[in-house]
Amino acid sequence: MDSSQLGLGIDAGGTYTDAVVWSFEERKILAKAKSLTTHNDLVLGIRDVLGKLPPALLSQVRVTSLSTTLATNAVVEERGCKVGLIVLSPWDWTEEQVGHSPLINVPGAVSINGEILQPLDEAKCRSAARELIEDHHCEAIAVAGYATIRNPVLADRARQIIAEIYDVPVVCAHEVSRKINAIHGAQTAIANARLLPIIRSLLEAVKKALGDYGVSGKLMILKGDGTLVDESVARKRPVETILSGPAASVNGARVLTGKRDAVVVDIGGTTTDCAILSHGQVRVCDDGARVGKWVMGVDAIDVSTIGLGGDSRIDFGTARQILVGPQRSIPFAYLADVHNNVMDFLEKLDLSPYKQWSDASPLDVLVLVGRTRNDLTDAEKNLLDLLEEKPVPALAAAEALGLASYRLLPTKRLESLGIIRKASLTPTDILHATGVFTRWNTDAAQKALDLFSVLYGEPPEAVIEKVTETITRRLFDEIVRREVSYETRHKISDIPTDWEFLLSKAFADDESSGLSVRISLRRPVVAVGAPAGALVPPVGNRLHCQVLIAPEADVANAVGAVAAQVRVRAEVLIRPNGEWGYVLHGEHERMQFADLEEATAIAKDIARKRAYERALEAGAQDPVVNVTIEDGAGTSSDGSQVFLRRRVLAVASAEVRLARRKQTARRA
């Protein structure tokens, strides 16, 4: 084995942080480790997982690839530095339209063809920058506007003006988003600016941790489209790392199984991601990546996510239907493993007064997991004082605080702030109770299942069967929805009501019914994630398909991070220029041509050169560039075809350029 061909893959996921030492030469895992993700400081979990890997192998690593949920979570939670937005548009934008404040409209606009409709008012641009920085105390500025990707000259000048006055980051929308939707471009620029200090701090801390554990070489970051970039690029465009976790799982599934066509199901602790792998590739979302309330104008794989995982809360409704997720809970098996008092209160917990209750909430246990804040109410502070030393059952907490019911406990805001979490029965507990997975305390899992059964009013065996059925049905629905969305290219956010009857027939295969429905999936299902081997196989019988559990499925995301390629896209658009000639629109170019073929030749040169240079910047080794041309046409009133646009796309791809191994000087 060539020791200069080792890589380290790290995936900081929603529940676990995984790491693998990977041999590029042999295409296999040499060592792996898992730790719980530390959400308040991801580097703590990364340090913990590094400490579980063989130092001798870590010292031979030449490249480290990191996949992280940090950017995604930061956008959803609106964390990061305060960003002011300067808008250049023919009409004024509002804060409600963009979903952001503060925002200042500055005179200066271009048309959809890139023609300057109104010159930039440089004095008002300076005034807007002063107001955002000095009055609103913004730490970064985003510049966006209508059609700036068609001609960025005004936006570039605005950035130059701001840089002359203030030493703050300035992000232009046309540089981080090549989508035509101007609002989405603005949101992407805002998110990128907001993420700059967050990603910078993470990368500096990760590099320090790697150095402390003897890991040298370059640091690469996985993007949301499943490709790698050098950390220097991620520092400038951190928004591109959004949704890197799902991208890592698809990469890992492909590498570990060799399958080029499959439905990839990544079931983790919190969520399940589902994507279609076709001819070795995953489709990139046409309109960008939806994260929380915003759409990011960056490339990200087409993936759907549901709140279903090993740590999903198991509950039931008034109609006695079993519910699994989307809320996440702490498994009793894990809680009892880290807190000595858990088994004691589970043994003493008397739920007989709540037999056949309306839900499973009397079983809840409250756990302090975050830091307190100054703006809490007295009731919230009293509850946190009670939880300071150990977890407390909700019933006992209500009694200790003198409340008439546990439902009066002030938990809602504390949970949303991440200060407390609830422990409840989870699929992880079911797996412990049945002996399928026994990493933590199996006695606590069994006791929690017994107590849940008291509340539900049926024996534990019946609960296990119904939980399994519920999980299988949710996976069944999601795989069908994903396949239909893929084949029709029509996003289906939820299963339509009209489908429910037929899907239920197909799932149950009820022989007593007059109508029989069969759904067969021609692609295999490739499952990754720690609980994949236990939770996914039953869906194969319902979809009449093959289910493959990827080898080393529990660390597939880390493999997907380190085994990914560098792939960079550069696009140039050519459009008719009214009644005369054509206009070429590049990232920094707007050029007019009388001849379409001449414009195409220039566009190919621009795209090819930009893709090649960016691939080198991203860390590629000898990138290969492929250029494709795609024409768009419409139909006129007389039925004839009308040329609308020509899209020139250059894609540069290559393996990661490995750092050279440091040579030790020999004594003469």
Structural account:
37% of the residues lie in helices and 25% in strands. With 668 residues, the protein is an alpha/beta fold. The chain has four domains: 3-75 and 198-259 and 558-562, 2-Layer Sandwich (Nucleotidyltransferase, domain 5); 77-195, Rossmann fold; 312-457, no CATH class; 566-654, 2-Layer Sandwich (Translation Initiation Factor IF3), CATH 3.30.110. The strands form eight sheets. It has a six-stranded mixed beta sheet. Strand 1 and strand 2 (16-23) form a beta hairpin. Helix 3 crosses helix 8 and helix 16 crosses helix 17. It starts with 5 loop residues before the first strand and ends in a 14-residue tail after the last strand.
- Which overall shape is indicated by the principal axes computed on the Cα atoms? globular
Report the uncertain regions. Answer: 663-668
Strand content is: 15-25%
Mean pLDDT value: 90
Strand order of the largest sheet: 3-2-1-4-11-12
| N- to C-terminal distance | 29 Å
Number of domains as seen in the coordinates = 4
- Cα gyration radius (Å): 27 Å
- Into which percent range does the helicity of residues fall? 25-40%
Figure out the total of helices.
23
